[in-house]
Amino acid sequence: MPGRLLALAGGALLAITVGVTARRLHEKRNTAEAKRRRQIARNKLLVTELSKYLPERRFKLKPGVVGSLRRNTGFNEFEIFRKYLWYLLRERTFDAEAIEDLVALKTAAELSDDQVADALAERAQRVYDKYGTLMLRELEEETLSASGLERKATCKALFQKLLYLSECERLVAQGSQAAGRINLRVIFGASERDVNRLRIVSLYEVDLEAAFSQAPGVNSAAGVDAQPADIPGDGTTGRDTTGGGRIGGRGGASLGPLPPVVISDDEADEEPPHFQDDKPRRSA
């Protein structure tokens, strides 16, 4: 009898120990930090897998590849496109290869123009939430610190790239209802003059010196070449309609590859909370 009681007590103690251990493991696995680590791993896997095809093997990026990536990461096709868009904006040189890769991903993910427009509008809103409005006036910029000037230069660069992508016919048909869903002027509180000033005229024509001279301590980014070339335009604005070349603009700024974000950010809030500006959201 005493032996049986001891066995029961031992079994109960073992069950309690196992239960407590399992609970602790469950809690540890579901902490914010653990979820963030898993999200980082999934984001990294997404970029790593797509980098096997983009840009060198772009022609092999098919719906089946995106489907496999969806199963391996848990992201749907829209999320895959949205995350790679942010990676492209932040870490890749904004050139013809980058544009072609984004178009190829849109095709492989079988996304509509409306979905691409939503991804661009969402990213624009997040950029605004982090960096605030565009500041293009000298009196405004004189009140900023060096770090503030750098943040605004980054904001201008991202705005330029988003504007170019939103006007790319192969991503979003211009004049369509989808194109109307991307209202960068409203999101950033920009005027028509601001938009015209920052619009990329041609991916071949680069004018970075003037832009960076306005932001002390900000160096021209690696991977952005100033190599003017004669290319076809649309005959009216001179804007590049061929989709080739590297980033440029009238009085605009480009930081080229920026600090990595897609690989390190979680799904719930791709912008780290402590980097966000205390500014109200604007409806696009």
UniProtKB/TrEMBL annotation:
The annotated regions of Gly residues compositional bias extend over 241-254
Question: Where does the Armadillo-like repeats domain lie?
Answer: 73-167
Q: Which GO terms describe its cellular component?
A: chloroplast envelope; chloroplast thylakoid membrane
Which Pfam family, giving just one, matches this sequence?
A: ARMH5
Give me the ranges of the annotated region Disordered.
Answer: 219-284
The annotated regions of Basic and acidic residues compositional bias extend over: 271-284
Superkingdom, taxonomy of origin: Eukaryota
This protein is called what?
Answer: Armadillo-like repeats domain-containing protein
Q: Which organism is it from?
A: Chlamydomonas euryale
